Amino acid sequence: MTKQDHQSDRTAVEARFAEIFAHLGFISTYARRRGARDPDGIAAEAMAIAWRRLADVPTADARPWLIVTARNLLLAERRSNPETGRQPLGDIELEAPAEQLPSELDLDPDLAHGLRALPEKDREALLLIAWDDLTPALAAASLGISPTAFRVRLHRARRRLSGLLTEQASIQPVAAHQPNWRQT
Amino acid sequence: MKDDRLMRRLRAARPGAEPGNDTALFARIVAEPGDPRLVQAPDDPSSQFAGRKVRSWTRARPRVLAGSTLGLAGVGAALVLVLSGSSAPPAFAITTNSDGSVTVQINDDSSLPAANQKLTAMGIDEQVTIYMVPGAATVSGAVNCTPGPGAGVPRPPVKVLVGTDGTDVIGSGQSAGNTGEGTFHLARCTVAPDSDTGPGTGNTGNTGAG
Lengths: 184, 210
Fold this sequence. Notes:
The complex is a heterodimer. By secondary structure, chain A is mostly helical. In chain A, 65% of the residues lie in helices and 0% in strands. Chain A folds into 2 domains: 1-106, no CATH class; 107-177, Winged helix-like DNA-binding domain superfamily/Winged helix DNA-binding domain (Arc Repressor Mutant, subunit A), CATH 1.10.10. Chain A has 8 helices and no strands. Chain B is of the alpha+beta class. Chain B folds into 2 domains: 1-60, no CATH class; 61-210, no CATH class. In chain B, the strands form 2 sheets. In chain B, strands 1, 2, 5, 7, 9 and 10 form a 6-stranded mixed sheet that branches. A 4-stranded mixed sheet of chain B has the order 3-4-8-6, with helices on one face. The relative contact order of chain B is 0.16. The chains are: A mainly alpha, B alpha+beta. Chains A and B meet through helix 1, helix 2, helix 3, helix 6 and helix 8 of A and helix 1 and helix 2 of B.
């Protein structure tokens, strides 16, 4: 291989990585929305891993691969932190102490209650679509399931969250209109 | 449709997005060796980032075996690190214990020279040599340093703690010749005069028994 070929190869590889690196903000945002203590660090580490394993990163869209990597790093972060180490994957730490919550996760109480009450897999399916703007196919890839299975999971998650929100809405007016109501 | 309203409500509650560009980080990562299936060595002159000093890019993960200021030599399966002076910013802790011993906690590779300088400033005119071996620590805690060859018993006794439990994870390209990639733990450490950086009789460090 000539020096010129060598340089061309190196440039092509770095250009390929630049396409992946363009998702740095996306991964940092993903990590922060999932309650990471150091979302920027997780995103940086995910990118470093992508560089070291560039041949494994899908060329079509790197986001599912990066999400899986970031999720593993998030788990490692939580294992290393006794305060949040027992929280399951995808838990957005709504029950964590307020000072540890980014202000962006200050959801309205009903929605917070609904998301918290959802099974972890259902919540993640919803958030991948609603918060991370992934297509169902990409979301399915990031969860390691088929698109069909993802559609079923998403439908179930919507139904469950809708039911939880309806339930919340049906409770609140009672309290609002009967201020003297007491539980016996 | 009810589902659409639900998704709109979820989207409306979505936390904001992060900016997605960090040129310096990109340069640091690309200066690493990269995937051996696709890229050449990090000192490949064709890389626009060749020759740049590689530094740790995460705040949370300590790296000990990195840095061009470190002397790195293999002794059997062990890696030997020698602390040498430089002007690297401190990222370490030196604690004087109630029994008179001194504990050096090393949190970052760049802190090693500074830790050595600090020891000297404290009147401990010695170099601390650290022996790292593959694998995670099975015994946590600081390791008592033993005298290096020809060295007397250090006064006060010196202990070294790598990270929080004796384990360090080294990424690709973080050590000379890329020989130190992986997970390591502090096997033992010695303290010797500045002129002596060789190995001495050690202890079991964070390796543990059995």
